[in-house]
């Protein structure tokens, strides 16, 4: 079994980005694209731990990256967390990996992946997996995510309190017997537990949402690489109408729907999610 190693990359604006890497230099991995995984907003590289391990055990070279302002990566002094800046970070990482990659992006990471794939071209990004995200996503579902993040920006007294908040937010997911796993997503300061991301990520003004949607849709239309869209059927962020619209614009894209999963598809039904991803990137 391959073991993940913590590595660092140089991002845009000189920020340091931290990742987990499996199978660097493995001969079996060298013949196939690297898999680069980009998490969603408010998450970190540990969201991909199980999937990354399965892909690595299949002999692939895998990198799970903490986006700027998330996990152990640097926070932006100017709170610059636009999708265009995340794209610039990822292009820097691609240069340092130095090999073609298959991109897997969840939510924010998926939108970033669309721009990266268009900017990098098919020789550098060979496949794209979008995890419960399309450019025209549901605003109510997105608002529910932001509300959950805002409501707990001041932290928790205990890990159990954090676990209860997560269970309330994700009622369809079985609650873990122990809250210890949350230590990957929280850090303790002055006796309280805080999510391990920059609160400024939520408060920095963004660009016009309609302009951003049009830009992302145009970028997706221009892609010529294989695309897999994985949707959680319980998702309130990606609707069936949103999927239909995306497939109309990108008719060659493949669709997999996970019946027991919501927006956090990779964690909700990891076995089915991983099977779909492994089958796609291993072709």
Automatic annotation (TrEMBL):
InterPro entries assigned: AB_hydrolase_1, AB_hydrolase_fold, Carboxylesterase_BioH, Epox_hydrolase-like
Signal peptide: none
Domain AB hydrolase-1: 33-265
The keyword Zinc-finger belongs to this UniProt entry's keyword annotation: no
UniProt keywords, alphabetically: Oxidoreductase, Peroxidase
Keyword Oxidoreductase included in the entry's annotation: yes
GO MF: peroxidase activity
SUPFAM superfamilies from the UniProt entry: alpha/beta-Hydrolases (SSF53474)
Top-level taxon: Bacteria
Name of this protein: Peroxidase
Lineage: Bacteria, Bacillati, Actinomycetota, Actinomycetes, Mycobacteriales
